């Protein structure tokens, strides 16, 4: 069972404010300070520093936060496993980003369900940041994500590599055949909302060319892939999606890949869970089953 003073520490990490942490925990501010001082004496390090009036984690504090979140996650997971002791029915709580959930995982979930027909499978769909937060809080055990995450906090296993394509209607794609990326800036860009993995990948690629999304003539932000594809099919602009998400539309000639001279990108989809988890081997076993390698 995690020390109650560690819960205080994590509350301060969440708010970076002793007063707000005290309010959340129903404690006085002096009590919160006392808990932090106890941990600092226990580990012989300073956990927080002050930059003016702003509270910041020290490097040692960051290390303790990562370890404490892993311990908290494992404790919640352990309690759930203990409650189901003796039951044949298992429960799998995990997350996936939108593109992964809609276009990459479905068939693999079919096979996974056949291996565990009596088990409860719960998949939460969200952006990478949201899924990470749910792993940290113990609401999810692991996630399959396309977005970026801090390697020091999460164990990761390569799940798949997906081609990342610029696409639009055939006539427009033909017009830009052999062009370079910058020539597309005169077009309307149809893109996912901020925080989505698909958008993060595009932003990183554009940044490599000293560009950003706002450099396009016009931008349509849409939080639904089906709507993005519909707008592209109707000639409203260009978009960038994983090949798996537009394979059917390309096959039926509703959309076409824009064959740019300077574009050849793929992106790794990753299976992640808390670093240092005592259930690491369990998660690796689930990964192998989901990925068809076991």
UniProtKB/TrEMBL annotation:
<keyword id="KW-0804">Transcription</keyword>
<dbReference type="Pfam" id="PF00126">
    <property type="entry name" value="HTH_1"/>
</dbReference>
<keyword id="KW-0238">DNA-binding</keyword>
<dbReference type="InterPro" id="IPR036390">
    <property type="entry name" value="WH_DNA-bd_sf"/>
</dbReference>
<protein>
    <submittedName>
        <fullName>LysR family transcriptional regulator</fullName>
    </submittedName>
</protein>
<feature type="domain" description="HTH lysR-type">
    <location>
        <begin position="1"/>
        <end position="58"/>
    </location>
</feature>
<comment type="similarity">
    <text>Belongs to the LysR transcriptional regulatory family.</text>
</comment>
<dbReference type="InterPro" id="IPR036388">
    <property type="entry name" value="WH-like_DNA-bd_sf"/>
</dbReference>
<dbReference type="InterPro" id="IPR000847">
    <property type="entry name" value="LysR_HTH_N"/>
</dbReference>
<keyword id="KW-0805">Transcription regulation</keyword>
<dbReference type="Pfam" id="PF03466">
    <property type="entry name" value="LysR_substrate"/>
</dbReference>
<dbReference type="InterPro" id="IPR005119">
    <property type="entry name" value="LysR_subst-bd"/>
</dbReference>
């Amino acid at each position: 069972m995690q020390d109650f003073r560690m819960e205080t520490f994590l509350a301060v990490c969440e708010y970076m404010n002793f007063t707000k942490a005290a309010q959340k925990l129903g404690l006085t501010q002096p009590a919160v300070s006392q808990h932090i001082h106890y941990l600092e004496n226990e580990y012989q390090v300073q956990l927080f520093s002050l930059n003016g009036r702003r509270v910041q984690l020290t490097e040692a504090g960051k290390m303790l936060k990562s370890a404490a979140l892993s311990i908290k996650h494992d404790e919640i997971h352990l309690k759930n496993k203990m409650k189901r002791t003796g039951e044949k029915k298992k429960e799998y709580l995990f997350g996936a980003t939108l593109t992964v959930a809609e276009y990459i995982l479905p068939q693999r979930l079919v096979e996974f369900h056949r291996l565990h027909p009596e088990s409860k499978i719960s998949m939460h769909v969200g952006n990478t940041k949201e899924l990470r937060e749910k792993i940290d809080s113990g609401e999810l055990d692991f996630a399959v994500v396309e977005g970026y995450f801090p390697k020091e906090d999460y164990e990761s296993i390569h799940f798949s590599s997906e081609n990342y394509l610029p696409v639009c209607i055939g006539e427009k794609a033909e017009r830009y055949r052999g062009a370079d990326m910058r020539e597309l800036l005169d077009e309307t860009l149809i893109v996912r909302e901020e925080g989505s993995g698909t958008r993060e990948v595009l932003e990183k690629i554009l940044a490599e060319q000293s560009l950003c999304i706002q450099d396009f003539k016009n931008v349509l932000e849409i939080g639904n892939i089906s709507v993005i594809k519909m707008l592209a099919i109707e000639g409203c602009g260009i978009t960038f999606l994983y090949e798996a998400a537009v394979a059917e539309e390309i096959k039926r000639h509703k959309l076409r890949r824009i064959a740019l001279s300077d574009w050849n990108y793929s992106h790794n989809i990753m299976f992640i869970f808390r670093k240092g988890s005592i259930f690491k081997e369990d998660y690796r076993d689930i990964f192998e089953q989901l990925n068809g390698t076991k």
